[in-house]
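pinned: reference chain
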Amino acid sequence: MNSQIIGQVKTVLIVSGKGIITSIHAQARETVKGERIVFLGDVKIDAKTLKQINNIILRSVDKIYSSLGFKLQSYNITIKNIGATSIQDMSLEISGHSLDISLFLAVLSAGLQLPINQETIFTGGLDTLDGHLSPVSGLSEKIRAVAKDKSLNHFVYASYNNDNSIESLAPNELKKIKQNFFDYEQTLKFSSVNNIFETIKAVVPEEDICFASLKSGFYSVELPVSLNPNPIGQTITYLLKDNDKKFWKVLEQLFLTANINIAKEYIHVFIEYFFSQACYPNNFGKKLLQLIISLPPAIKKKSNFYPLLEMKDYIHLTQYGKETDYDDIKKLFKVAFGELINLPRKPRVAKISENNTSLESETLLEQFLNELSTEN
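pinned: its structure tokens
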């Protein structure tokens, strides 16, 4: 099974007193006429829960979309793999807030093309438009159900400390929860979260946000001037802030770990984004040259290293270069196709310090650059 899927998120529900693992799948559609959230299949949502989904979950996603410059969307929702419905051959009505976090993430993922790890499962309620979470009942039964599913290794749940809900738990229930944490801590990672921002930060790495920002078109969107510092505002900041820095950081890490083909795919998606914006990325050639120069020689000697991008991508992108970009476009060609500028080798005697322990920094730098120039 693919460990990351767009628009699909795992959750655990209580059915007939037992924890049932299920998946929520969201498919975005552009029209906003009629019901914007439509549940397909045998699973039904009770009226109170459906109202909460439309008033809180959907509006929270809308806030994020608006800040990213997206049009509002509607969604078809499928709740998959409810074991109880197939066993009993009947439809199931869901009530309560156990699926709130998962539904929010599924809808957000579908719209932003943001992959969600399928080895992670969520439970918890989203009660406010600010993005704060509330705990849900049946945590002990849910932990046991998740622990039995060997495809899962991370359980994310709304904290009981967020609104002092822990004080309302019966002593026996609290004891069972603590015992379950102890019993399964070796096989499951547990993450207690207070809000949507903490949830996303815990499960969505920067590289996935960067890739999604390029694919979905919010890579260069600027942060709103007046942004509420609540969890929804923090989530927007996390999605928008420093995407350029994220890109180069991720690209460097991919090269350093010899994930060369994935690194090339990132470059391709980067070029596709700027081609869609009809502009040449500022100092692209210079930044790529600096990154490649910094890599260990062994990485650059790999047979699949060059070319870093396809010629058609180079041609498509550079047509949008302005006169001020011409020098950078030349750099891009040389670094992308392995034609780094050869630096002249001038024999030079290094000056030795009085204690004979160090070379002049200028000489070291020249020698370093000369080595780099001959790697290809």
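why pinned: Residues 47-67 form the longest helix (21 residues). The CA atoms of residues 150 and 310 lie 41 Å apart.
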